[in-house]
Amino acid sequence: MSYTKALKRLQTIRAHVAPNLVEETKEGDNSTHSDSMLRNVSNKKASIWSGFHQKPIKDRINLLKRLYPTLDGDIFLKGSLTPAQADMMVENCVGKIELPLGLGLNFLINGKEYVVPMALEEPSVIAAASSVAKFVSERGGGFKVHTTAPVMASQIVFIGVNYSSAKYLVDMNSQKIVDFCNSHCRVMVSYGGGCRGVRTKKIYELQTEDESRDVMVVELLIDVQESMGMNLCNTLAERCSEFIRNIIGEGKIGLRIATNLCVERMATSFFKIPVDKLAWKDLNGKEVAQGIIRAYEFAVHDIKRTATHNKGIMNGVDAVALALGQDWRGIEAAAHTYATLDGGYRPLTKYRIAKDTSGREFLLGELELPIACASKGGVLGTNPAYNATHLVAGQPTGRQIAGILVSVGLAQNFAAMRALAVEGIQKGHMTLHAKNIAVSAGVPPNLIDEVVAFMSSKGTFDVGTVEDYMKAHKIYSVTKKGNISESSKKTFSTCFVKIDHPDLAETIILNLIIETPEDQKPIHLSITQDPEDKKAFGKIFGDHSYDWILKILLLSNQLTEVTELPGYQKTHQASLCYRLKLITILINRVVTAILRNYKEEGIEIIESVYSVCKGSNVEYKIPSSHFFLHNLLTELIATYRYYIDENIDNKFLREALIEDIMISLFGLKESYKYLYGITGLTKENYSIFIGHSSKRINLTQVLLIDILACDQSRITSEYIKHIVALGQVIELKAVSIRDVHKAELNDNSNYNCYYNWLKIHGKDAQRMNEKNKVEFLKSVDELNAGKISVDTSKIMNQIKFNLLLLNV
Ligand code: MEV
User: Fold this and answer.
1) What is the C-alpha to C-alpha distance for residues 704 and 715, in angstroms, rounded to an integer?
2) Set 309, 429, 551, 669: catalytic member
3) Which numbered atom of ligand 1 lies nearest the CA of 309?
4) pLDDT value at position 382?
5) Angle at the Cα of 675 (from 674 to 680), degrees rounded to 5?
6) Is the CB of 311 under 6 A from ligand 1?
7) pLDDT band at residue 515 using 50, 70 and 90 as cut-offs
8) Could you confirm whether 122 is annotated as catalytic?
9) Average pLDDT, the chain
10) Is the Cβ–Cβ distance between 729 and 788 less than 8 Å?
11) How many other C-beta atoms are found inside a 10 Å radius of the C-beta of residue 650?
């Protein structure tokens, strides 16, 4: 399989393995609105929003109506603004334009749960926000928000003044100016707002013929309470300008306008998540934290990245602002200007890793914005849809709205950084985009997932690809008649592997999706240390299979201690090394299970898989009862090749790793031919038989994989050849020691090289004879003699095969 094919295969696998972006709310994580209905539901510990994303729109609206009895839910579907109202709002009005409205779920802000309306056309934004909100609330206790008083600055320019004296006069008369200003906004004062102060700033110097004069600005600081405040501030600037000019006694009045850069009206959201709780997909917490910090540093140092970084934040902020009727252009202007205040243009979020007093590490994320949000006034009164969105959001105050906006912006940024750092953003994005394409191309709902998977696997997302798919399945014409049977939907089996042990530097996790034939029920296999899982796994793969995997991994740890790989560093590429080793051991297990469970048919299956992997186009049929192991094997090989192509630059190493997998497939299959009597075993071909059999313990792979943790500058093709030879020597030695030990344990399996050796030497009945054992082991050493030039006695003596391997 080529790199691109393997990659696409893996993308399909991942597209199915990845949990839905909007994860379901678990029992007990309920929204706790003041609404009594919600409280009731909450008390019952029901999962209100569980599966919300999977419901049809009609059912979602019905749920909203139940949760908010006063809500006119239909307003979201039918629209609220009449043409007459729209005409009153803008000039030359010709109608309205629409945007989808969705709900950001799982937001826990200062201990209160919020349902967040979001309006935008871009897929994946709402899903990502909801998913991160859940993650932050479960692992970090939610977002903590701080907001300051809603004070806006209104600017009045004076041209041609002496700045020093004008400043002195304004400062001396500031109370008078404040009182004058308040006398012109009595309603705002009655609500608790009004003018809070005055300040001045020199803008620049004017060079006139006889003297230099200054241009200054006087700023009125106005507490606008629940309003956005720009209109009031503009009005007050106009009303107070003459009064202030009289105080200054000179100069001309210039512009009078409020600023959007409302640095008095700040909102900050932050979260703190223990690093050990950051694990996501198959990366551990530390890796995720480091990935986020690296992504953040990129945005700090490269302005092109900063732009996209901040755009992602505003995806969330703007969407909520639009849904709640806020002035999103003002919010945008303030945010981007604020990003430049330290000089340069910087990312609006900040991330760092910090330790608490006990030494536990946390990832801290923060977003701070000057932000003007209103719960009253402006368009909020003219468009009834905003009554509905504010009701759904829990009737937040202006400051709470600001807190929601910064939290959603932070969630959005964290989601983007995590996705970029961990798996690349495109996959999630394209999957949702692909859904839209499929819908727009008229694909019936029951086929959407299938079509999306197809587009992902092809890596092309367009209507043409959708049509190809529909045609290919000969259902295109049926679709036209509107008659698609449910049975055409694919099902997928899964395999989840989790290997955990204190001697392994980390937990190793692997997820696989396995295509299931239409006439078969999906199988969901879990390979974990849970006793039930172990039992189920052992049934198909042979007793103690889980322990076998674990022991080979532990043995590999021991091997690296003695093989003296050049510049080997245990921690370097540790996750990749573990994952690759796990896959190779699993491949070995699955091949063995196929050969053992399906006998001659198994040999044919492995022969076919082997030829296809080697590039042949053979078509072969798998009995449907054997699909699971076969498909699991091909997925494992595809996944293995993907990781190799993706991560390993050294061509010789890549080739050696693939080649050794092929040798294992071939060797295991050949060795079973002897066992099933298809190939007769003789003294002449015994060395070939034991060579094939030794691939049961695939330590060559383990040694080759460890090269990834070495100093790459010292890895030549000669060195790789040496490791392959060393691996084969160790495998032969290991298999011979293991099989002699099995005789000592009275094991009756005939898949034993020692028993077969006894047989061809006519000594069947003398398994326990010490002389035979010694002679057999010596004959294997002779087979190994001269294969490698270095002295392997140290390796052989130090590795305690018997301890590690023989009792599983
Ligand atoms: C896409 O609308 C926004 C992102 O590009 C933001 C980012 O890269 O941080 C995903």
Assistant:
1) 11
2) 429
3) 9
4) 82
5) 35
6) yes
7) confident
8) yes
9) 85
10) yes
11) 16
Domain ranges of the chain: 54-146+281-345+366-424, 151-258, 480-806
Task: State the CATH class of domain 480-806.
Answer: mainly alpha
In the chain, the amino acid numbered 350 is: K
Confidence check: pLDDT of 523 > 70: yes
Please tell me which of 29-43, 325-339, 521-535, 707-721 the model is most confident about, judged by mean pLDDT: 325-339
Question: Which is nearest to 159 in space by CA: 247, 248, 233, 219?
Answer: 248
What CATH code is assigned to 54-146+281-345+366-424?
3.90.770.10
Task: Tell me which residue of 609, 588, 560 sits closest to 709, measured CA to CA.
Answer: 560
Asked if residue 315 has its Cβ within 6 Å of ligand 1, the reply is yes
Q: Which residue has the tokens 């910087």?
A: 346
Q: Is the CB of 349 under 6 A from ligand 1?
A: no
**CATH topology (fold) of 151-258:** Alpha-Beta Plaits (3.30.70)
Pocket test for ligand 1, best of 294, 311, 349, 408 (most atoms within 8 A of CB): 311
The residue to which tokens 């050969």 are assigned: 595
Question: Side chain identity at 99, as an amino acid letter?
Answer: L
CA-nearest of 391, 235, 420, 265 to 324 is: 391
Catalytic residue among 311, 458, 473, 759: 311
Q: Which amino acid is at 59?
A: D
What's the gap in Å between 408 CA and the centre of ligand 1? 14
327 is catalytic: yes
3-state class (DSSP) for residue 125? helix
Task: Name the residue among 316, 349, 323, 372 with its Cα closest to residue 150.
Answer: 372
pTM of the model: 0.55
Q: Do 151-258 and 480-806 show the same overall fold?
A: no
600 noted as active-site residue: no
